[in-house]
Amino acid sequence: MFKETEFSLILDRVTSNLGDGVHETRIPRLAVIRASSPTERLHTVYEPSVCFVAQGAKRSIAGDRILEYRAGQYLAVSLDLPAIGQVTEASAESPYLCFRLTLDPVLLSGLILEAGLKAPPSHIDQGLGLTTSLATPDMIDAAARMARLLETPDAIPVLAPLVERELLYRLLTADHGALLHRIATGESHTAQIGRAVKWIKDNFREPLRIEAVAAKANMSPSAFHQHFKDITALSPLQYQKQLRLQEARRLILANLADAASAGFAVGYGSPSQFSREYARLFGLPPIRDAARLRSTMTADHAGARQAAQA
Predict the structure, then answer these.
(1) Which pairing describes strands 73-77 and 49-55: parallel, antiparallel, or unpaired?
(2) Among 22, 150, 187, 293, which one has the highest count of C-beta atoms within 10 angstroms of its own C-beta?
(3) Ranges of each domain in the chain
(4) Which Pfam families match (predicted)?
(5) CATH code for 4-184?
(6) 129: which DSSP letter?
(7) Comparing C-alpha atoms, which of 30, 33, 13 is closest to residue 22?
(8) Residue 108: how many CA atoms within 13 Å on its side-chain side?
(9) Quick count: other Cβ atoms within 10 Å of Cβ 73?
(10) How far apart are CA 224 and CA 210, in angstroms?
(11) Which residues pair with 68 in a beta bridge?
(12) From CA 142, how far away is CA 275, in angstroms rounded?
């Protein structure tokens, strides 16, 4: 069975020639991440996934909740969630190394049925849509073997699906397996909020009418608001606002729009309101924030900044 040090050595080997950043691999849904120095705080949207840290440490912030995790731990995310990621422990000699597997709800639900796994008690289906936990030796073993397949690409089509199923089974039957059950269970509160989250993501430029979005989750407006806040650590309006502002920031940084045009493009009718809310989230008004980011996005740091997303 692989040990944690062997897991980090494998990820170090497979990422050493790739450099810093988030690297998609030949294994479907698997990415490997490397950062050779701590990163700044980066606003992003986490997808349903599990992220095993093999070396270094990371901080994730969702709303007012802060999660710290390091080598030997994993982060599990059950729905698309605006968050802030920051690599907090990394160096050239000992880089941050992470293994991220995006979760497939169909694969999870099929595995639950095949293995006859019982749904967790209803009282467990609550709480924030991301959590951290210690990785068991069996999880590290499966994750390390999956990563090592990257060194033998011809074996990936046959062996990767088998190892992925094993890893998901280990996760489903662990102490925090309830979070993965939520992804596969269409009637859980998390799944209901997930449907509303998808609608907000697809329509974030439109005015948000709570009654209409709550109906998509099959909840009353008051229950929807409470469950949404419990699971995402944000109100529905705050969630929409973060999506809008992150997209506006992307447009400005990519020189696809000036500040006023970016604000209108993401649904703001008032330039002053857009600038005010942008500065509240990112710390500076749009133009000054973009200038600061461009000045720090050198070739040496761009990949390390990207690694804060995973």
Answers:
(1) antiparallel
(2) 150
(3) 4-184, 189-234, 252-307
(4) AraC_N, HTH_18
(5) 2.60.120.10
(6) S
(7) 33
(8) 26
(9) 17
(10) 9
(11) 59
(12) 47
